[in-house]
Amino acid sequence: MIKAKKSLGQNFLIDKDIINIIADVVEIQNKDILEIGPGTGNLTSALLKKNPKKFIVIEKDDDLAEHLYKIFGDKIKILKDDVLKIEENSLNDDNLIVFGNLPYNISTEILCRWILNLKNNYWFDCLVLMFQKEVADRIIANFDTKNYGRLSILSNWKLKIEKVCDIRPSSFSPRPKIDSSLLLFKPKKDFYTIQNPYNLEKITRIFFMHRRKMIKKPFNQLFNGNSQIAERLNIGLNMRPQNLNYETYYKLTDEYEKLNS
Questions:
Q1: Do you find a cis peptide bond into 218, omega within 30 degrees of 0?
Q2: Which fold has domain 6-187?
């Protein structure tokens, strides 16, 4: 019997209704699929019934990888590796549809890595990902709300995000202590051009370091007190980080890049 390993943040999805909801989020027939952390293969089995063209799974746990091979054999290609160490842009020749019940302890790290590493061409058609509900709420948050922050701004830069459903702890074994949420991410055709995504990460990190304080100090730190930039973007330096919408942060990053070019 396969036991979940707490050290790897494993919670196996067992709810057939939820599994079917996930499998039906997007059409996958004759498409190339990537599943992150397939666990015992319950979702894998449901996805295979949809007749994908190619099926790749990334499973770090050797015991689970062996278990999956015994069940599915050559129906899936198993990569025994850490998802954070894999070069996602070279996983497949064609775009992938990605499913993932992401380990809660690294879910934000995975998403941020994927966003910051995005090239001119997307390596995926869509992402169907499960997060701790608290994290999902931060991802989809709008400005001027308590959950709005760096993760909201990064996630909504190049991606359209839709909440599919919330998932109760009873849908997993072992049961986590918190609710989960399923999100659907699709690439945006039009988005604000930023030369180096890590500049957006830097600006949001510095601004939200003290999210309850006015933005005057982080603004001056980044822009050397250049008030013309604030005036041009209609920013009051007595505002707080959550008062600035997504677009303003993208424009601030553009100004920062111009200033440092």
A1: no
A2: Rossmann fold (3.40.50)
